[in-house]
Write a structure and sequence with these properties.
With about 150 residues, the chain is an all-alpha fold. It contains 3 helices and no strands.
Length: about 150
């Protein structure tokens, strides 16, 4: 009785090369090649889909937590702004203290917006990097095999 074995993993790492008997016809070899390439493409597409799904889930959770942190930071900042206005109001008229604090806040917002815009422009879209590397390795292997 033979022990069952698990199928090889999907993608380039799971590729198996079967020895080619010398009496195999060219038509059979082309049929096998077509079947293997089709299977390889399907496996790489599944790998890419799984990788993008996993990254999207992480992005969603992180964005939610970041949003919650931002909300509480906003409330804390609002209290500090009110405290700054009250502190300045003890030496200046209340309206002038509020205007000074507002101008400082707008200046900070402008700097943050400029830095944020630069970071967004430099960001790259999420890509299935493992799947791309697998496909590139597969293409290189096929080219090497065809050069023989």
């Amino acid at each position: 009785m033979t022990a069952p074995h698990s199928p090889p993993p999907a993608g380039a790492t799971g590729a198996t090369v079967t020895p080619v008997p010398e009496n195999t016809s060219t038509g059979q070899l082309i049929g096998q090649l077509t079947e293997q390439i089709s299977s390889l493409v399907r496996n790489e597409a599944r790998l890419a889909q799984a990788e993008v799904t996993q990254k999207a889930k992480r992005l969603g959770v992180g964005a939610g937590l970041f949003g919650g942190a931002g909300l509480f930071a906003f409330f804390g900042l609002a209290v500090l702004v009110a405290a700054a206005v009250l502190a300045l109001a003890s030496v200046l008229p209340g309206w002038l203290a509020a205007v000074i604090v507002a101008v400082v806040l707008f200046a900070i917002a402008g700097v943050l917006a400029a830095v944020g815009k630069r970071d967004v422009e430099q960001a790259s879209p999420p890509l299935p990097t493992q799947a791309i590397a697998g496909v590139q390795a597969d293409i290189a292997a096929v080219k090497k095999g065809m050069a023989r």
